[in-house]
Specification:
Layout: E1 7-10, H1 14-25, E2 31-33, E3 45-48, E4 51-54, E5 60-61, H2 65-70, H3 73-76, E6 78-80, E7 85-89, E8 92-96, H4 106-110, H5 117-131, H6 135-140, H7 146-153, H8 157-172, H9 181-193, E9 196-199, H10 205-212, E10 218-220, E11 225-229, E12 232-235, E13 240-242, E14 245-248, E15 267-276, E16 287-289, E17 298-301, H11 302-305, E18 315-321, H12 331-343, E19 351-362, E20 378-380, E21 383-385, H13 395-415
Parallel strand pairs: 1-2, 1-14, 2-10, 7-16, 14-21
Antiparallel strand pairs: 3-4, 5-9, 6-9, 7-8, 11-12, 12-13, 15-18, 15-19, 16-17, 17-18, 20-21
Helix pairs in contact: 1-10, 1-13, 7-9
This protein binds flavin-adenine dinucleotide (FAD).
Length: about 425
């Protein structure tokens, strides 16, 4: 096998980094072309005013099979969220706990305002049945919407509205739970078999760790690609690169003329950070806002999860808005007023830190899948695709797609050259 082939990877997100790692393991030395100023793609963390700000609230599910394969969890110093969620209503709050991990709290939930004892039993049944199934089996089951699946499974409207809707809106970044039931089951299984976690010093530690594993790859930052055609890469700078193989580990419709117009718009989210003297939750738990009148869907004190998110002794609150909203000067004030209505803490104590408008948060994939045959990553001679949009919007999928594209490149040299 020739190892001196010129292989380019476009995009240094999770998928591109995994593709590079797999190519290195096979003896190649790929070159990554990255438009932005760092690695990580959608998994980035900024240092700002003494805080660590993830660009959009997101978590690593420790049960992800691909993450277990590629990441050293110990070195990431993962900080786990407490399973379950806190439900916030104006002037009221109650907890929904995980029946598997906190059986002692089962009874309290049975009578809690979140759902009924019957719902609790259903959650237990679902957890057990998903435990028996592989991820591949889950993704080969009939697909319906998540909302329809929950209704058909027999969950009450109460628990759907009080828990499933706000919890999964925050994950799927869409408001109707129209996402495929396959994805719901996969995520539910991951939540019940592991923890939601963040690295102690922010999500970007994940791609940084993947970057550290690369010893033979070159990473060229600030190098946007304009177009890919006939084995040539046209950079925005005007330079043209000749390639033996190209892995496009970013949305390909923007650089491959034949795929233009083939993708649905991505899902969006607005993520706002506030600081305050003390956390009003004081536990590493996601809080959900169930009242549809509110803009806020979910919130969490990142400093309750990892104290390293703040270097100035103030608590850092991350708020996610999944509803369509106009981000203007008034929004931070409006959200602070909502926080005040939920907590009875005066709005002026919530100090706005920063707002992220994330236009391309998650791909809107119709036919979600868990994996794919390596050969299906090939679009034309020498051009291969990677990226979460190939499968489903998750770190796990981004890793799988990167690995599969690398396998396809490697096997193209085994068979043809
Ligand atoms: C707010 C938010 C919340 C999320 N929550 C979760 C979660 O809780 N759990 C989970 O598992 N997943 C979550 N995700 C999804 C997860 O982050 C993504 O699935 C994953 O990071 C995608 O990786 P990728 O490599 O496929 O794509 P990307 O991260 O998008 O990487 C693509 C890279 O290509 C670069 N690029 C683009 N165009 C060009 C070009 N023309 N030339 C050169 N480079 C280019 C980009 O700059 C980028 O670095 C979330 C995402 C967001 C944004």
């Amino acid at each position: 096998m020739k190892k001196e082939q010129t292989i380019y990877i476009i995009g240094a997100g999770i998928s591109g980094l995994i593709a590079a790692y797999e190519l290195e393991r096979a003896g190649f030395s790929p070159i990554i072309l990255e438009a932005s100023d760092g690695v990580g793609g959608r998994v980035r963390t900024d240092e700002f005013k003494g805080f660590l700000l993830d660009r959009g609230f997101q978590v690593l599910l420790t049960a992800y099979p691909e993450a277990q394969r590629y990441l050293d969890y110990e070195a990431l110093h993962l900080k786990n969220f407490e399973p379950g969620a806190l439900i916030l209503k104006p002037g009221d709050a109650f907890s929904i706990s995980d029946p598997l991990r906190n059986p002692g709290q089962t009874l309290s939930m049975a009578f809690s305002p979140v759902g009924s004892l019957f719902d609790k039993i259903k959650i237990y049944q679902l957890t057990q049945s998903l435990k028996q199934k592989t991820e591949e089996e889950i993704f080969s089951e009939k697909s319906t919407t998540t909302f329809q699946f929950l209704k058909d499974y027999g969950f009450s409207d109460k628990i759907i509205n009080n828990f499933f809707k706000p919890f999964f809106r925050g994950i799927f970044l869409e408001n109707e739970l129209s996402t495929s039931s396959r994805m719901f089951k996969f995520v539910f299984k991951m939540f019940s078999q592991g923890f939601a976690a963040v690295p102690e010093k922010g999500m970007q530690a994940i791609p940084e760790q993947l970057k550290e594993k690369l010893t033979k790859s070159q990473i060229r930052l600030n190098t946007p690609v304009k177009q890919v055609e006939y084995g040539k890469i046209y950079l925005s700078s005007g330079d043209v690169l000749e390639a033996d193989s190209i892995i496009i580990a970013s949305r390909p419709d923007r650089i491959l003329p034949q795929l233009q117009g083939q993708f649905k718009p991505s899902r969006k989210v607005v993520n706002m950070y506030f600081s305050i003297e003390h956390s009003f939750i004081a536990q590493p738990k996601i809080a959900l806002v169930t009242d549809d009148q509110f803009l806020i869907n979910n919130l969490v004190f990142m400093t309750d999860v990892s104290s390293a998110y703040s270097q100035n002794n103030k608590a850092l609150l991350s708020v996610s808005i999944t509803k369509p909203v106009e981000v203007d000067d008034k929004l931070a004030k409006l959200v602070a007023i909502e926080l005040s209505a939920l907590t009875k803490i005066s709005a002026e104590f919530f100090e706005h830190v920063k707002t992220y408008i994330i236009e391309n948060a998650l791909p809107d994939v119709d036919d979600m899948a868990y994996s794919l045959a390596a050969g299906n990553t090939k679009v034309s001679d020498g051009v291969f695709l990677a990226g979460d949009y190939m499968l489903n919007g998750s770190i796990n999928a981004a890793m799988t797609a990167g690995r599969k594209a690398a396998e396809a490149v490697i096997s193209s040299y085994q068979t043809v050259h």
